[in-house]
Amino acid sequence: MSERLEPEATTADPQELFAAYLRFYRESAIEKVGSLPVPEQRTSRLPSGWTPLELLRHLAFMERRWFIWGFLGQDVDEPWGDDRDGRWFVPEEVGLEALASALREQGERVDALLASRSLDEVAPPGPRFDGEPAPLAWICFHVLQEYARHVGHLDVAVELAGGPTGE
After folding, report:
1. What does the angle CA 135 – CA 137 – CA 139 come to, to the nearest 5 degrees?
2. Most CB atoms within 10 A, among 48, 83, 100, 109?
3. Does a structural domain hold residue 69?
4. How many domains does the structure of the chain reveal?
5. Within 10 Å of residue 50's Cβ, how many Cβ atoms?
6. What is the distance between the alpha carbons of residues 90 and 98, in angstroms, rounded to a whole number?
7. CATH of the domain at 124
């Protein structure tokens, strides 16, 4: 298990900060879902109907879509595989351990990508982009904002399920 630590204020290097904050948000999401009993991980308490496990799976697919499929231009199996009939879903046989492992493995690939590429580098044209492909810096900001938003959603879902609140 990885430790969830907010990056220290010891660097101004954007690539290091992006990688560190992505690790922080990944671990925050995993920890929040893991704070719930297993039945609550698969239960929605929200009008929109998503469950904490569904949101966690969405995060793994979202990050893969942006960095691997979008930025690197690599083929990925089912880039939108977190969606079924217009909503997120998790197969019954997939639980927190498998999702956490997939998210962390994805994170290792993203760490390597950020350590080896320039933030100015632009993604190749491909199916991820409707218009002009984006530079890596834009993708990083986009993915960070999506993580921050969804970890906030998990804060609410966990609180409604009677789980721990706050950091």
Report:
1. 75
2. 100
3. yes
4. 1
5. 18
6. 11
7. 1.20.120.450
Q: What is the pLDDT of residue 2?
A: 59
Q: Which domain holds residue 120?
A: 32-160
Cα gap 59→23, rounded to integer Å: 12
Vertex 143 angle, CA 73 and 6, to 5°: 130
Provide the 10 A C-beta neighbour count for residue 58.
Answer: 20
What spatial distance separates the first Cα and last Cα of the chain, rounded to whole Å? 18
Neighbours of 61 (CB within 10 A): 21
Q: What is the pTM (predicted TM-score) of this model?
A: 0.92
pLDDT at 23: 95
Nearest Cα residue to 59 out of 104, 113, 2, 1? 104
Tell me if 151 is assigned to some domain: yes
Which of the four pLDDT bands, split at 50, 70 and 90, describes residue 3? low
Residue 54 located in a structural domain: yes
Give the mean model confidence (pLDDT) for residues 14-36.
95
Buried b / exposed e across 19-48, counting CB within 10 Å, b at 16+?
A: bbbbbbbbbbbbbbbbbbeeebbbbbeeee
Q: Is 18 domain-assigned?
A: no
d(C-alpha 36, C-alpha 18), whole Å = 28
Helix, strand, or coil here: 126? Answer: coil
